[in-house]
Amino acid sequence: MIIKTTKDEIVSYLHDASNYKGFCDAVYFPENETDVISIINECRKTNTPITISGSGTGLTGARVPNGGIVIATDKLNHIIEINKEKFFAVTEPGVLLSEFQEKVNQQGLLYPPDPTERNCFIGGTIATNASGEKTFKYGPTRSYVEELHFILSDDEKLVLTRGKEKADGNELILHSLSGKKYALQIPHLVSKVSKNSAGYYCKKNMDAIDLFIGSEGTLGIITLAKLKLVSIPSEVISCVVFFKEELSALNFVREAREASFTSRLYRKENSIDALALEYYDKNSLKFLSGEYPQIPSNVSAAVWFEQEINESSTQETLLNNWLELIKKHEANEDDTWFASDDNERKELEKFRYSISSKVNEYVSSKGLKKLGTDAAVPDESFEKFYMFSKSLCESSALRYVIYGHFGNSHIHLNMLPENEDEYSKGLKIYEKICRKAVEMNGTVSAEHGIGKLKKNYLSMMYSEDDLIMMKKIKQTLDPQFLLGRGNIF
Ligand SMILES: Cc1cc2nc3c(=O)[nH]c(=O)nc-3n(C[C@H](O)[C@H](O)[C@H](O)COP(=O)(O)OP(=O)(O)OC[C@H]3O[C@@H](n4cnc5c(N)ncnc54)[C@H](O)[C@@H]3O)c2cc1C
Prior knowledge:
By secondary structure, this protein is an alpha+beta fold. The protein is 34% helix and 19% strand.
């Protein structure tokens, strides 16, 4: 097993894409479960904190150590099996999501979880319950995790299989492979949004595996995952529509979202059923205009949508349905970017990726931490929430861009401060936005997790009693608080 200790060797493990920075004594690269167990064993004896690292694309500082050692999962990078007949794959956690998706696609299958950044590891996506563009149709990572192998901080191994271990009301009893028993009391936390990555997933009668998905490296180390796959669609329609009026774009999203829900509910073929519904505000388009001079002038917003074409639908009818909606909301068909083949579709995907990565580049260039919201609210409150968030930024005179997964009523409002003063001003706005999201029964984190940067906002969502119960779960499974210290709690 490789162990790195010199500054140059470990520096890349001391930050993540949020630009939060940390420090540690060493980075360990286990190559198998036995290595993982021996590292944990040693750390337990010396009471050394362990931070687990995926690929470091996280946006909350969760993989960044504040002392102790890092377990880097880079060498746990084998895909064990892709089963075409039974629609599943078994993989180690350090496999790159993009590589995994490519291998799965080659077998005519699809693994739907797709955060905009695909240079993340499978383990990182499970530990944050990541979601992405396709979540609007397919749901978050959680929906695809069938089995997890988990090493706890006492070296015990849990094998959690969906459907096998369930809580009895609020009581969840787990047994490790060696027979050690863990009795957990689970709070009942009900979410009214379609995606949520804030704190542990806790519900009466829940499936045990769900507690560990989204646990941000605080409960144990994922060493193996069995993931569900679906059939790959034969074709996908992909378009970016530009709107002169912001309100038209928001109405377009609302109508497309509702039409998609209706199609799914009544299993309507050949009608609107979006795979992705993504939004860019005027400032985002301006921010991207250097790279994309073809963005039409005088537009106030854009929406990127995708829809799968399957055996029971035809491209012509689906396109006509979308065109009708485009015209109804006064977008110009001539200004719409249609992808006519797979390469053009990838270009549109890149357009979506560009805004996120350009914001992160900007933040790094200023030496500041990322100040981007990850809040989502129930669909019925969405427009109000959008207008509220936007008006706070407008009145502050801070630069900002708004984009995100509007199909899921999920906004990334990124402030672009120039200096520490503006950053502090932006933090106050950030807090108000989180408060508003919670007031509207939403979440402060729909997909990035809480990590180290968003801890203060978790207490807006849950009562003190619920947070104490979450902390007790952590304490039962990791009594020395060795793992992911500083994350969530
Ligand atoms: C440009 C950009 C766009 C993004 N877009 C999205 C998006 O659309 N949707 C989205 O959800 N996220 C998005 N993200 C955030 C990020 O990509 C995801 O959070 C991703 O899941 C993190 O994976 P990672 O491997 O980089 O994890 P890391 O950042 O390395 O770690 C994240 C967390 O996972 C834990 N962890 C990692 N591996 C394990 C393991 N084996 N066992 C236990 N815990 C583990 C770590 O301890 C940490 O708590 C984006 C990031 C960027 C930079």
